[in-house]
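Workshop exercise sheet. Pairs work together: one partner reads the sequence aloud, the other fills in the structure field after running the prediction. Swap roles for the next sheet.
Pair: D.N. / O.F.
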Amino acid sequence: MKTNYMRLKGSRNLRLCLLLSTLSSTPVIIDAIRDDDILSGLRPHEISLLRLFEKVCDDCVVEINETGTKLKYKPGIVMGGRNLMHDCGVSRAIGYFLEPLLVLGLFGKKPLSIRLKGMTNDAKDPSIDTFRSTTLPLLKRFGVTSEGLGIKIESRGVPPLGGGEVVLSVPIVHNSLTAVQWIDSGKIKRIRGVSFSAKVSVQFENTMIHSARGIFNRLLPDVHIFTDHRAGPQAGNSPGFGISLVAETNSGCFISADTAVSRERSDEMTELDDEKTEISPPEDVGEQIASMLLGEIEQGGVVDSSHQGLLFLLCALCPQDVSKVRVGKLSPYGIETLRLIRDFLGVKFDIKPDPHTGTVILKCVGCGLKNLSRKIS
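Structure field:
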């Protein structure tokens, strides 16, 4: 039987393409992957992501040409499974791999439990703390049970050498997700956060927390930021520190921002420059992250800009019922997600700006994805 492949070009949002391809069982051919770059083809983290998909799915076929500029992917059945292990490498943080894993795990045959090794925090991807405080409550909104849903940090790891370990467990959806009507973003009632330091003095954390609280305490009294100081094997292989903050509203929304500071990993491209980048002092990091969080809150919306893509994806995977959500300014990743959802799942969103609040209200009818791979008892 001839397989019909959907053809895509370029490396943009490869992670999302692979995830949607697997969920909708659409085989894809992606060509012209970084054709014009000096280092053409797939990057190490993208190949690692493909290997991860092979681990949690059965019978998926991956073909990459010699130069790595063309990828042929035929999705299999999501199996899930216990005690799996995957090394994410050090070109992207574990957060890059977690988002697709969380969604895939929900539609598996068995609940997923996997140990991921690599970097738990970096400045590019959402940190593991943010996943715990913000992403997991987002899944619960869509009817995912909290039993069997969790992320445990065994050890921290920051660039350039990583060394972190995380254990993720995801339950399966027994039939399908639940559609949401979620437009009330509410008022901020408390701010929580976790700061971490690995292989550096705990004083870094205290300074960061002090400067972040200096901004928040003018606005609300209920601010608690916990410290997580690691040393020895639990601190990974590189020194670094960072902080993840989350604001909780009285309508149950979680708005987050995070960052991490460490020595930059040296890319093949940057090895030519001998100058080391300056590491920002902890006072500045605390102030910047507090301002970032206030910026996210100011935008309005029920999630922050980094969670828009996941929110739209979960709405599109709901049963054939209307979901309605409010977000702040649409992020570029959110817009790309909407386009790919239209191409793969055939779900179109109705987008209406709300001029009074400067937010955007999106409505869609889900594609009705059911968990067909689970065992029927």
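Discussion prompt: Confidence is low (pLDDT under 50) at residues 268-274. What would you look at next?
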